[in-house]
Amino acid sequence: VPAELSIALPEFNEVLAPTAAVLDPQSKDPARRWLLLIQTHPPTVDLDKPTSHDHGWPASPSRKFERLLRSSCVGVGLLTNGIEFRLLYAPPKENAGSITFPVGAMTEIGGRLILGAFHLLLSSHTLFTAPSGSRLPALLQKSRDYQASVSEQLAEQVLHSLYELLRGFTAADERVNGELLREVLRRDPDQIYGGLLTVLLRMVFTLFAEDRGLLPGSALYVRHYSVHGLFERLRTDAERYPDT
Predict the structure, then answer these.
(1) Are 34 and 74 in contact (CB under 8 A)?
(2) Bridge partners (DSSP) listed for residue 16
(3) How does pLDDT run across 11-44, given as a tens digit for each residue?
(4) Which of 18, 179, 197, 202 is the most interior residue, by most CB within 10 Å?
(5) 74 and 36 in contact (C-beta within 8 Å)?
(6) How do beta strands 97-102 and 14-16 pair?
(7) How far apart are CA 197 and CA 173, in angstroms?
């Protein structure tokens, strides 16, 4: 591994370096000739647990490797302790992302999809011979771009929902001659905006959990607690009473 890929941290008296580096045979830019950095650790090392040494940077191996990827401007790295493989994407000046492939799961029949994804991302074809738009760095960049577009769409939807919810509360307040919101408007009007936004973000979180089966799927939960169940009841009410 060339010295250019080692990053010194004088404040911690530590040097970060990869175990191996993969050259990009198609790169014509000397500053971008590295495709992937690799760092290995013994199986006893937890990739997410901060080190407890008396010297050096007391951060987890994953956090240190992320710092190495950013500082070296390589951006893509594979971190492993033999128990799991973690693909990291940490381009300069952007948030890092990662996906972890547990070796134990990949050796089981039920983990064939995980193994297939691992092979698709890190096979020699994806790394070296695929068209430029289908190689690993391009795939990671497309994933980052898609993530940004989804975040923008979600922000717009939340803002639209906030206005709809606010209009609903305003209409309800008008029907009772201002009794519903009079006190909070007098005391702290910003509580209305903050409260409605909190409710919406909690609903987004709950929907995320429901869609992934992380919350109960029983009829009792769906009927009385589920956001999906609430949506179905509201849609039924809208069909029965379209004017109100």
Answers:
(1) yes
(2) 7
(3) 888 899 999 999 988 877 777 889 999 999 999 9
(4) 18
(5) yes
(6) unpaired
(7) 18
